[in-house]
Structure formats: structure tokens, C-alpha cells
Amino acid sequence: MIDLDNTQELENLDPGKVAESIQAFPDQVKQAWKDVSEIDIPAEYSNTKNIVVSGMGGSTLGVDILRNLFKDSLTIPFVINNHYKLPAFVNQDSLVLLLSYSGSTEEVLAAAEDAKARNAKIIGIAEGQDLGNFLAENKFPAYVFRPQANPSNQPRLGLGYTFVGALAFLVKLGFLKIDQDEINNAINFLEEISKGLVLEAFKNTNQAKQIAEKLIDKQVLIVGAEHLTGNAHVFANQANENSKNLAAYFVIPELNHHLLEGLEKPEKIRDNLIFVFLDSNLYSDKIQKRVVVTKEVLSEQKIANVGITLRGATKFAQTLESVVLSSWITFYLGALNGVDVSKIPWVDYFKKRLAENN
Questions:
Q1: What is the largest CA-CA distance in the chain?
Q2: For the segment 279-289, what is each residue's pLDDT rounded down to a tens digit?
Q3: In 3D, which of 22, 58, 55, 330 has the Cα closest to residue 152?
Q4: What is the dihedral of CA 138, 51, 56, 274, to 10 degrees?
Q5: Residue 275 belongs to what H/E stretch?
Q6: 135 within 8 A of 142, measured Cβ to Cβ
Q7: What pLDDT, on the 0 to 100 scale, is given for residue 1?
Q8: Which residues contact 154 (CB under 8 A, 6 or more apart)?
Q9: Are 174 and 167 in contact (CB under 8 A)?
Q10: What gap in Å lies between CA 281 and CA 275, rounded to an integer?
Q11: Separation in Å, CA 251 to CA 4, 287, 321
């Protein structure tokens, strides 16, 4: 098995520059916030009654963080649409955010035409390609970014562009509030904690390396709540794609109403299952109590669990912190699994076969 303190070994397993993308996440945040602040948006876009985000896979991970982070302050419906067609309620009073990191996602391109036909208010985020062309040709407000801080060019590793890009659009439109100081403080915090997580940081002080070793040969279940619900989704996605390690996520309090009973059988599940909790002192009191009791139940059932305590001073800082931590953990788990963390061969195979049938 690879030695996580052997930097050269880690670099040899990373020809796709995943580690560079993770380390550059704070730069993605800076770039997206600045770039979108300079985009003009028609005044009438603020007069919308609902927001629909059209996107798939890694491209929408960031907006899943966003909708859970701001659930208590966003005063109009916010829906993520993972289909070719938009919901029936979409009309001229809807704001449709077309989101495709690559710009070539077929479901999003279909939804783009659907949104245009319904006279919806359209904005978009993409690296370019077909979606970038659609947005430019129709003169819709768009963030067509240059992924200079994501050398891997994998959407799941470019969340700074999609999450903060979408956030900056909604702040400009007046639907969300966050100020420059909070952005700057979060970036400074990210840059500081990242020093202890990078390849050169030794395992005895590197939290990401320590947790990765606990996940070897385990099916991983991520648990989040409230503002970190979207981050649990991100973590599971990264474990599947980066680490090639089976993972799923569950949310408190919902999991307390069914999942704990499902851990009885098969009995051998206790040998290969581990829960990873995203813990926060910013959870409500009721959720913090549920987390404690949930861990107690798992211990009674002799099922392994580990907690990751987020240290950010604000909910926004904690969501960014969680992205960095889960990115590094799944990078190191991928290295321990002996896989190329940048490639997604089975997803690529599926897309290729699907295209052959069209």
C-alpha cells in the first residue's frame, strides 16, 4: 500500500493534476466572485418568483451546497432540475440558471431551449462550448469562465466556479446577502487550513490523510445536516469519482426515521461499513443532540463511525472548508486504492455508449 507521506508516490498517481486543483480551490472562489461581479444583469431579472437550476452531476454540486446553506433566508422557491425538460411551472416569471461546467451536457442544452420557449429569464454558467454559444447568441447574462485554477478540468473539482459563480449571481440580483468581508475572511481561512492538508503535510498532523486511512476497504456513508447537507452530497460524489470507492449520503433528521433499522442485516455489513459525520457547532441544538444519539446507536450496533468537526466561524466558511477537506480525503483514499483519481472511465464509457445509440 502507498505511503501517504511519500510525496513522489502521490504525484505519480496524479497525472491529471487533481491535487493542484484542490490546492487552487481558494483561487477559484476569488476568481468567480470577482468575475461575476463585473457581469451586467437586466433589472427585470430581480422580479422573479422562482429559481430553477438546470444541471447534472458534478456541475450542480455547488448549487446543492448553496440551496441548503441559504434555505433559511431565500424567500422564493429554489429548485434543481436534473432532467431534459423543465418543471411545468416555469414561465416568464421564472429565473432559469443553466449550469454545465463543460458546456456540452445534453440535458442542460435541452432545458435551455425549453426555457427560451417559455420566455423564462435565463442566466448561465459554463466553460464554453455549446452552452456558451447559446448564451452568447441570445445575449443572455452568462459567466463563461476560464478554469485557470482547475488544471484537472473536472467539474467536481471546480466547485469554486459553480458554487461561488451561482452565489455571486444571486447576490447581484438581491436574492441572497453576503458581503465582501465574509468572502475575504473565508478565503483567508481556507488558505490557512489548506497548509495542513497538502501532499507535503505529514500524516501525524494531516487530518485528511488520517481519515482516508480509516476508510480503506469500507463502504462509506456520509452524514450531514442543515447547512452542510449539500456538502454531504459533495463528499459522497467525490468518494465515488475520485476514490472509486462506493459511497452514499444521508441527512439528519430524516435518516433517524428509517436508516438505523436497516443496519441489522446482512450481519457482515458491520465489517465493511463506516459512517462519516460532518459535525458543526453551528447546527441547531436539536440537530446536535440527534448527532450525538445517532453515533450512540451506531456504537451500540458495533458499526464504525468518525466525525469531522468543521472549524469555520460562519456557515459559509464551513461549507467551503468541507469542500476542501472532502476533496483531500477522497484524493488520499484514491491513492490508497491505487487508482487514478482524475479519470472516470465508467462514466465516460456510459456517455460514449449512449451517444452511439442516438
A1: 60
A2: 999 999 999 99
A3: 22
A4: 160
A5: strand 273-279
A6: yes
A7: 79
A8: 16, 18, 21, 58, 241, 342, 344
A9: no
A10: 19
A11: 31, 10, 19
Q: Which three cell numbers stand for residue 1?
A: 500500500
| pLDDT-based confidence at residue 58 (cuts at 50, 70, 90) | confident
Give the model's pLDDT for residue 358.
Answer: 63
Q: pLDDT category, 295, cuts 50, 70, 90?
A: very high
What does pLDDT average to over the chain?
94
Mean pLDDT of 188-193: 96
C-alpha cell at 37: 461581479
Residue 83's closest CA among 53, 128, 49? 53
Q: Is 41 exposed, middle or buried (0-12, 13-18, 19+ CB in 10 A)?
A: middle
Distance CA 45, CA 123 (A): 9
Question: What is the pLDDT, as a whole number, of residue 353?
Answer: 87
Q: Is the pLDDT of residue 357 over 70?
A: no
What are the structural domains of the chain? Answer: 17-178 (3.40.50.10490), 201-336 (3.40.50.10490)
Q: Which amino acid is at 29?
A: V
Mean pLDDT of 202-231: 97
> Angle at the Cα of 237 (from 81 to 309), degrees rounded to 5?
115
Least trusted range by pLDDT, from 82-86, 221-225, 246-250, 316-320? 82-86
Using an 8 Å Cβ cutoff, are 16 and 149 in contact? no
- Length of the chain (residues): 358
What is the amino acid identity at position 309? T
Q: What contacts 238, CB < 8 A, 6 or more positions away?
A: 156, 326, 327, 330
